[in-house]
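Chapter summary example.
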Amino acid sequence: MRYSYLLIDDDETAIKETLKIFEDFPEFYCIGVANNKSEAVDKILELQPHLVLLEVAGKSKKSELSLCIISDLYQYINFLPYFIVYTSGTKYAYDAIKAGASDYLLKPLSLSELRKSLLRFGKSNPVQKTDTICIRSYGDYQFIPIEEIVYLKADNNTTDFYLRGGRRLTAYKTLKHYEENLPLHFFRIHNSYVVNSKYVSRINTGKSLCYLNDGEIAVSFSKTFKDNIDSIIRNIAPESL
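The structure predicted for these 241 residues follows.
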């Protein structure tokens, strides 16, 4: 399992240093960077990272980076991502934990201390708490239960979500973005399709078709993703392979 993280800092040098340290942890990938409060809240709601690193004492005297970013999120979501607050001193440690941060590190980040923090993150397993996905259209945020998603279809640089009951929603992110952030029972079966294997009701290998929602929907799969098709079959009926 790979975990996404968002980096919130207004110091370009510190951002580069942090990204460099994370190269030692390939299971974590940077999903974005924010350097002000508004952008930080917006990206957390839109991208739903597993982990957020927040610098609360910004380099600029006019910095908007503070623990208010955490408190503001409670207006919109029930479960916060795992917050690691990091700054140059211990001044904000108590307030950070009280606000809802899960860990507190000192700058400059130490490889060994970051490793311990990421191991603590792994033990808490916050990914299991994520049961919704945010589909954003400009300033409109729609929070959709993940289990309502039947399949996703790529449309240039946007993605169409097809939901149980026939609804379709368009998100302004690529299919690859959502493929990397959905649970393990979602499989890429074509350059244009990701399916929720819980809705797979039939697979016809001769016609290269995957049937969903009790056969109501048929989507194509390609040879490129044959291993994923085998994984779906193995998960549903292990004796069939």
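To summarize the output: The two ends are 24 Å apart (CA to CA).
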